[in-house]
Amino acid sequence: MGNPVTWFEVIGTNAEQSAKFYSEVFGWSVDHFPEMNYHIFDTQSGTGIPGAAGEVREGQAPYSIVYIENPDIDALLAKTQKAGATVVMPVTEIPNMVTFAHIKDPFGNLIGLAKGDGTVVVKDGTNPPVDWFEISCVEAEKAYDWYRDVFGWTIKADPMPEGQPHAQIDTGGGIHGGIGGTPTGQPMVTTYALVNDLGEYLKRAENLGAKTVMEPMQVDPKTRIAAFVDPHGNMFGLYSTAS
Hints:
By secondary structure, this protein is of the alpha+beta class. The chain is built from four helices and 16 strands. An eight-stranded mixed beta sheet has the order 2-3-4-1-5-8-7-6. An eight-stranded mixed beta sheet has the order 10-11-12-9-13-16-15-14, covered by helices on one side. It starts with a strand and ends with a strand.
């Protein structure tokens, strides 16, 4: 069984305002931890994963990150290093909250590791869930093998309509995702919320200061995707599915 993805973060230029933005766009509830400048989302969607908004350090660019969970985080971190990852933050414990680490994979993506058994708790509700992630890099097909070998994920090739490399990920728990190429040439991780109307949510985001960077597009017979950059510098994805 693979290591599940169980948490996401959007790290931007203003954590408090970023949390307010996502709460207003999607209806998510927020628990504020001002002493840490950290703001935790419960999407209240009944599915998907919870996450948080944080703030970049001075001189750092905004980014998104997902966390991969394992009961033995030290062993998992060592396994990633042996496979060529770089440790960005060693195993760190925040008492009564979380034990985590950050790595950079061999393709330049920042990835989080967390200690835990893979349990995900999201309150019931009808808000859009965060239940998909994308890892984008230049050498996507090499990344398939790396993530399969290191985290035990099931990865199945699923090229984009224009033929660009892409694969779907079954993590074995938490949420699923994909690995594909990067149109900008820069590695990045993007989280996606499932919505019932792409146009409506793009408009909501734009009205609150976001910029649409991907207009709705069809990626398979049932799925359409879009994306915006929030007012604090993070790209965030949307997708919808036909019933």
